[in-house]
Amino acid sequence: MDSVVNDYNAGMSANISGLGLARAFYHEAVQPVLASHYPRLLHSAALIGSGSEVLGYDDAVSRDHNWGPRLQLFLSAPEQTRLSAGITQTLRRHLPRQFRGYATNWSAPKHQADDKGTRLLAPTDSGKVNHRVELLTIDNFMRAHLGLGSKHDLRATDWLSLPQQKLLSFTSGAVFHDALGIETIRQRFAYYPRDVWLYLLACGWQRIAQDEHLVPRAGAVGDELGSRLIAGRLARSILLLCFLMERAYAPYPKWLGSAFQRLACAHELAPILAAAQLASDYRERESHLCGAWQILNRLHNNLQLTQPIAPAVQEFHGRGFMVSNAWRYTQALLERIACDELQQIAARSLIGGIDQFSDNTDLREAVQLRGAIADLYAG
Asked: Deepest in the core among 23, 92, 111, 120, taking most CB within 10 A?
């Protein structure tokens, strides 16, 4: 067994991405087995959903768990019921033990609360391959990943209850073969409908309006720690607003800064936000944020969603604190919403989407709560 592991380690390629590995694994290993044993099988093959490689952020560290030759094989509901067990066993017997230098055999999933089913590559030279070609239907995958099915009639409340990370990971990755039309389904989720987008933009500005005067307010009473923490909240709000402005889904915190650097506005805003975080006192912090307000004003006006809003950085109610008057953007955007459902939601509350009112990972990952979260907007 030691020789198997040594040979395996020597053959591993450091130059291939997880998505590239999955694509090659399907075309060079999985598809030939299917063509030989199930030549009439209608299926789609993809790597979507969870995993850093789906978003294109995987690196050497990513390879220590849940990374390797894997993919999803989607079948119709009748064939999934009738054939999935047989296909699984056929692949276990006929897949190679290694692919591109990586084991195709995986450890059994663990279920401890702290590892969430972590699986590791487990090179072996005997027995059947414990592969990770998951056989499922697109409907079942969507219910497990998004909390709704493929034929779900999407309402505004559904969009607002779906975390952006979930939407991003469902629409990212790649489909390698598509006889069942998964790309058409994914396209439905490519980005928010216009009025949902307007509401989220308005709520993004609302978050800024709630916090922008508190950075200097806390600092003025000697609470530099509090001022710095509030500036951090504002930086997150600004980042999320920028993703909305550029019509891009934001990933979860691990990759938020990396994804932000890919936005067109990052070359201007990233240095300013970093400087605000590092500022030694609240006045310097406030000055950097004022620079951010000017850039955000220009980005908003460039969208041409509302009448142009003057780039006013003004004193907050005579207190000597400089702010953007973010409420102006909120009001102007709300006035452009045509959807009756969203007008009613906005009239009741400006809590925004789930990513805007909570950063709690357990809440955003709780697919079984998605319907209850949608009900929050019903009044």
From this structure: 23
